[in-house]
Amino acid sequence: MRVNVVGIDIGFGFTKATNGRDTLVFKSIFGEASDIPFREQLLSAASPEEHLHIELDGESFFVGELAEHQSHVRSFTLDQNQFITNFAKTMAMAALSRLASPNDSVNLVTGLPVSFYRRHREELSGLLLGRHTLATLDANANRREIPLTVNQVRVIPQPFGSLFNLMMGDSAELTDKRFAEEKIGVVDVGFRTTDYTVSDKTKYSGRGSGSSESGIARAFAMIAAKLLEQTGVDVELYRMYDAVARGSIKIRGKTIDLRPLTEEAFSKLASAVAGEVDRLWADDWDIDRIVVTGGGGAVLAPYLQPLLSGEVQPVDPTADSRLNNVRGYWKYGRNVWNTQPQAVPERRAASDS
Ligand SMILES: Nc1ncnc2c1ncn2[C@@H]1O[C@H](COP(=O)(O)OP(=O)(O)OP(=O)(O)O)[C@@H](O)[C@H]1O
Ligand SMILES: [Mg+2]
Questions:
Q1: I need a labelling partner for 76 at 20 to 30 A (CA). Which of 91, 140, 238, 348 fits?
Q2: 90 in ligand 1 pocket by Cβ < 6 Å?
């Protein structure tokens, strides 16, 4: 049996996962699996990555883009309790269906928003631990069983993923001591939540940590409200990414310029985040460095950085910053379980889960 270290970051917007070799990102949406007419068309259009069709505990689901485009009934939520009870396991198993092989033994590292960490970490590891009967169906409806066992689960506060990612290299060795020795403030702007944490020589500071609802979805909601006013169409929030990135949206044949609306919404969101930083870190004026991370961190950085006082770690424009946490989860897993990728570990670190 192979032991595979996998990091999974189950976000409200996107689920991100890596086993050190392959990396996967898909929207955190699932839906009923329906018959797909015209499979041929789908085959030529979609890459295999976009075809996430799984069977879990006797139920069949479309996940990610496939659910967005093909399921009549889709589930997407911004509610935390819903998210853990109804989404976390499905998203994690959809990720593992791509990153694990049949009969693998998996050690998982995942995270929770700071404010839900204490309350939900046991529940989350409980959902993920153990043996799972998982199967996938490819675009030609070929079924493949991937039974697997999740042996160990570590749950960490989400923004620590980004910190570990900056601190360690690809073999989980310490590469940048500054992040281990300094007092670092992390702002992780996600789709729904923005998480704040302070790491003092890698020690978690409860005082400087918290979550708020100042995620990108709030800016999207402001834009969507304006669009509803203008067109009468209520655009679902998860359909806004491409439109905002493109700078325009076409509704019932009419193209609407989104740039002024986006500028306004992102500026407002950035001031809210900067205000939260000032309040939360009022007593932490000795922070050495501020790290802005998360997919939302990258899009908000131009608006946010001028409002932050202190030394701000520049956002790496070449990396997809949605992946910062999950890369760190994986490195952390490599570090705790001291394994080579895909190798059977000789010794197993004691786990608290
Ligand atoms: N290539 C991209 N495609 C889509 N969104 C992107 C991309 N790059 C950056 N983004 C931004 O990233 C945001 C999502 O970031 P991220 O994946 O970190 O959130 P999340 O972890 O799913 O949310 P939360 O932390 O609230 O659970 C989107 O709202 C979008 O603004
Ligand atoms: Mg996140």
A1: 140
A2: no
